[in-house]
């Protein structure tokens, strides 16, 4: 098996567009644009935002609108969805929205599709009005979107305008082996959510690569894994900053909706033993530390997965510290290549 180096593969960004304590979504959108502009200069390949609903600490609910906003304020970086939660949308609407984005920003838009609703069941019903055409229809809905992007057919009764004839890369997102199987069958690139669902990562990657069928859009399997990174100038500083991430995932475990919390000196007393175990299980693929620590741990992750691309999510409270984390990562790549 060929051994990849961190400098050999693209790095990308997943932005959940966090809403900080005492701040508003408008503040989050300004930070998102600033982060996108910085990582574009630092050489990151793509910038994805994820659809979530009814979450006080995440402002990326209207994902396609934010993609357009970020694409307008940048020049070269690919901008996309990580992902659009397909059960919440009619396939035609998705094709029209992303056909519009591709028409406005040609060659820069990615469409990542997920089969979860990205929220709780009550909110799912509020989004869709009913639960017909839900998760189980995901493969058919993906195929329907692909058909809308196919070359223009004047005889078609339903057409995506804009959309038809446009090359918008479609990615299958997954946190289990289901998405891997579908991506392999359809010959599409695959992105695994190991930043919060690590358990099936290796099984999903193996299944995807072994069962991949070449398609018109992709000849060889292409796998991306998303991880959490909290990088700082020292291990101690990174460990302090990472408490924000622990508190965010503690809220997930407890089912409580809160804005992103500032870091604390210690998590002792904030979680019990079982909560700590649950959080750390979810955060198995989180790399926290100074430049050397993060570089060694990320290289170890690459050695074990052999993914083609690493996407990075950074749950860091202060915007300047979040920028610094992504800057450190980009410098590690520069150092590796001798640039």
From TrEMBL:
InterPro entries: Bact_Lucif_Oxidored (IPR050766), CmoO-like (IPR019949), Luciferase-like_dom (IPR011251), Luciferase-like_sf (IPR036661). One of its GO terms (molecular function) is oxidoreductase activity, acting on paired donors, with incorporation or reduction of molecular oxygen. Pfam families: Bac_luciferase. GO terms for cellular component: cytosol. Residues 24-253 form the Luciferase-like domain. Transmembrane segments: none annotated. To bacterial alkanal monooxygenase alpha and beta chains. This is Luciferase-like monooxygenase. It comes from Pontibacter ummariensis. The lineage of its organism: Bacteria, Pseudomonadati, Bacteroidota, Cytophagia, Cytophagales.
């Amino acid at each position: 098996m060929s051994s990849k180096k961190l400098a050999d593969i693209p790095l990308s960004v997943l932005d959940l567009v966090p809403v900080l304590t005492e701040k508003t979504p408008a503040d989050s959108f300004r930070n998102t644009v600033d982060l996108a502009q910085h990582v574009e200069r630092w050489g990151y390949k793509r910038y994805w935002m994820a659809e979530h609903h009814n979450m006080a600490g995440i402002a990326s609910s209207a994902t396609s609108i934010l993609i357009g906003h970020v694409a307008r304020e940048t020049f070269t970086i690919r901008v996309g969805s990580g992902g659009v939660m397909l059960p919440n949308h009619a396939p035609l609407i998705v094709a029209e929205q992303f056909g519009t984005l591709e028409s406005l920003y040609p060659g820069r838009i990615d469409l990542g599709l997920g089969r979860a609703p990205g929220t709780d069941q009550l909110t799912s019903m509020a989004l869709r009005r009913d639960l017909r055409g839900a998760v189980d229809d995901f493969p058919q809905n993906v195929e329907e979107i692909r058909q809308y992007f196919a070359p223009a057919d004047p005889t078609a009764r339903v057409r995506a305008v804009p959309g038809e004839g446009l090359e918008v890369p479609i990615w299958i997102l997954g946190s289990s082996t289901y998405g891997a199987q579908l991506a392999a069958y359809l010959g599409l690139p695959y992105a695994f959510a190991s930043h919060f669902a690590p358990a099936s990562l290796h099984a999903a990657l193996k299944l995807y690569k072994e069962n991949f069928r070449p398609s018109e859009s992709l000849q060889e399997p292409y796998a991306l894994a998303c991880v959490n990174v909290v990088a700082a100038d020292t291990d101690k500083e990174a460990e302090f900053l990472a408490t924000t991430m622990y508190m965010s995932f503690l809220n997930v475990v407890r089912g409580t909706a809160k804005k992103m919390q500032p870091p604390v000196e210690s998590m002792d007393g904030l979680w019990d033993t079982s909560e700590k175990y649950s959080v750390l299980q979810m955060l198995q693929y989180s790399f926290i530390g100074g430049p050397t620590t993060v570089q060694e741990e990320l290289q170890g992750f690459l050695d074990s997965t052999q993914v083609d691309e690493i996407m990075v999510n950074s749950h860091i409270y202060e915007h300047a510290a979040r920028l610094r984390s992504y800057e450190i990562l980009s410098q590690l790549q520069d150092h590796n290549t001798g640039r």
